[in-house]
Prior knowledge:
Helix content is about 75%, strand content about 0%. By secondary structure, the protein is mainly alpha-helical. It binds calcium ion. Calcium ion binds near residues 15, 16, 17, 22 and 26.
Amino acid sequence: MTKQLEQNSTYNAFDADHDGVVTDTELARSERMMMIENMDKMADQQRVMSWFAIIAPPALIGFLASGLVTLEKVNALNGLVTTYCAAMGTIVVAFMAATAYVRGKSNDA
Ligand SMILES: [Ca+2]
């Protein structure tokens, strides 16, 4: 018994050679392509987050050092700013480590 897809089925997109049959190989290939696209989107988001994490602490420090904020407030915010800058640094390091790990994994495959 031959199984067929509906006329406008979304699974028609998996029929790479357009022979009307979606093979296991075509499904596996499509699944792998979707996984790669999702990983690429995730890497883009992490890249944006990392750029923000790189730019935000110096901008914050520059703002606090600009004289627009009173020394009293700078002293009060000192601990918070230190923690914030350390957290931003951690995000950047985590992104770099994750990128290196993924790159190493993809080189193994
Ligand atoms: Ca096919």
